[in-house]
């Protein structure tokens, strides 16, 4: 966990930006010794968003499975796709 005071962000933005890009992890910014902000590179943010979207899809699929929706094995799914597209996958 990277923690920096707000004065570092205000006085030396470039080093905070470089650190965010190098580490690929969030940087916690404090104000008067208390947590205030989290700063991260756009790449790290976008990766995080993709992981959150995937987790939401997996949770929805698991909820469907638990509620009794039909499930298909990989082999069954492949066969269904081959039937739809008329070719071996």
What does this structure look like?
The chain is α+β, with helices and mostly antiparallel strands and 89 residues long. It contains four helices and three strands. A three-stranded mixed sheet has the order 1-2-3. It has helices spanning 6-11, 13-23, 42-66, 74-85; strands at 2-5, 27-31, 34-39. The radius of gyration is 22 Å and the shape is elongated. The longest helix is centred in the middle third of the chain and has 25 residues, at 42-66. β2 (27-31) and β3 form a beta hairpin.
Short description:
The chain is an alpha+beta fold and 89 residues long. It has helices at residues 6-11, 13-23, 42-66, 74-85; strands at residues 2-5, 27-31, 34-39.
List the helices and strands and how they pair.
Blueprint: E1 2-5, H1 6-11, H2 13-23, E2 27-31, E3 34-39, H3 42-66, H4 74-85
Parallel strand pairs: 1-2
Antiparallel strand pairs: 2-3
Features:
single chain; 89 residues; alpha+beta; 3 strands; 61% helix; elongated
